[in-house]
Design goal:
Layout lengths: L1 H9 L5 E10 L4 E13 L3 E3 L1 H11 L2 H21 L5 E5 L2 H5 L3 H11 L7 E6 L6 H14 L2 E7 L6 H4 L6 E4 L1 H6 L4 H16 L3 E4 L5 H9 L4 E2 L10 H8 L6
Parallel strand pairs: 2-4, 4-5, 5-6, 6-7, 7-8, 8-9
Antiparallel strand pairs: 1-2, 1-9, 2-3
Helix pairs in contact: 3-5
This protein binds guanosine-5'-monophosphate (2 copies), manganese (II) ion and sodium ion (NA).
Length: 254
């Protein structure tokens, strides 16, 4: 209840902040993009995780204005980085409710044009739950594609959608869920699942991003099996804008 009341005021009180986690080319360790992750600094309760407040924001409808803030903030940030010579894409998490909102496409278009951004710098991450409404999703993803925006499927493998369903949607990127990456080195079944996702994903021309990489061994396994981009604590936790700028100004994350 405290979360619910606080959420309504959080936007006006400027209590949200975007953190950024680098997406890395595994071999060279160069940063190829960043994922924006929302943080809420509550004046009394301290930092509240999106795992706690996003579900509340979804059930109260607050996810629409909050999600709007996230996209606008990300676009402003890309613009700022561009003017300082850093050309990097930002991946933004989008809730299914936000994705289905009638003003969503308008919001995306406006955020890009207000910041004079080429669409390729924005990537939208949706979860497999969005795909349950396949017809509606198809239309929205199609519109995003027409704008020139990349769409990725987040947490792939944890939901019910198969690669064959995905192959009928104009999706660009598959993000292999971190639970697979965590288990794949000590569980041969998980290793096979990861190999299969990578192989089928590549054959269907998806880009692949592995999540939750924490060890060099995991990174090597992924490279050997054909997944070349990843993110995880091995490279960096999600960090503040100030800290990500330091990383972006380096050649690579190490
Ligand atoms: O860094 P991490 O603990 O932040 O993120 C926790 C969860 O919250 C993840 O599932 C992530 O996708 C989700 N999340 C992070 N930022 C956002 C956001 O801006 N919008 C939505 N809808 N989910 C987010
Ligand atoms: O959007 P998504 O559901 O993929 O959110 C990513 C979540 O995973 C965030 O909570 C982020 O902080 C977390 N995360 C990112 N890298 C790692 C990692 O290497 N290990 C673990 N355990 N979590 C990670
Ligand atoms: Mn994500
Ligand atoms: Na994920």
């Amino acid at each position: 209840i405290k979360i619910e009341q606080g959420l309504k005021k959080a936007l006006h009180k400027n209590e949200f902040e975007l953190y950024y986690q680098p997406q890395v080319h595994l071999k060279s360790k160069r940063i190829v993009g960043v994922e924006a992750l929302l943080r809420w600094k509550h004046p009394e309760l301290g930092n509240i995780s999106p795992y706690e407040f996003v579900p509340v924001a979804e059930s109260t409808g607050m996810i629409i204005p909050i999600g709007k803030w996230v996209i606008q903030e990300a676009c402003k940030q890309i613009r700022l980085w561009q003017s300082s010579g850093i050309r990097i894409k930002i991946a933004v998490n989008v809730s299914a409710l936000q994705f289905e909102d009638h003003h969503f496409i308008e919001l995306v278009n406006e955020s890009l044009s207000q910041n004079l951004l080429p669409p390729k710098y924005l990537e939208l991450e949706i979860t497999e739950s969005v795909m349950q409404k396949i017809n509606q999703s198809f239309a929205i993803i199609g519109k995003l594609k027409n704008i020139g925006i990349k769409v990725s499927i987040d947490d792939f493998g944890t939901g019910y959608s198969s690669l064959s369903v995905l192959s009928n949607l104009p999706i660009d990127v598959i993000k292999i869920d971190k639970s697979f990456v965590h288990r794949m080195m000590n569980n041969t079944n998980t290793a096979s699942v990861v190999k299969t996702i990578i192989e089928m994903g590549s054959n269907l021309n998806f880009e692949l991003i592995a999540e939750g990489i924490e060890t060099e061994e995991q990174a090597e396994f992924l490279i050997e099996n054909g997944c070349h981009i990843g993110q995880g604590y091995l490279y960096s936790r999600p960090v503040t804008k100030h800290e990500i700028e330091k990383l972006l100004n380096q050649e690579s994350v190490v």
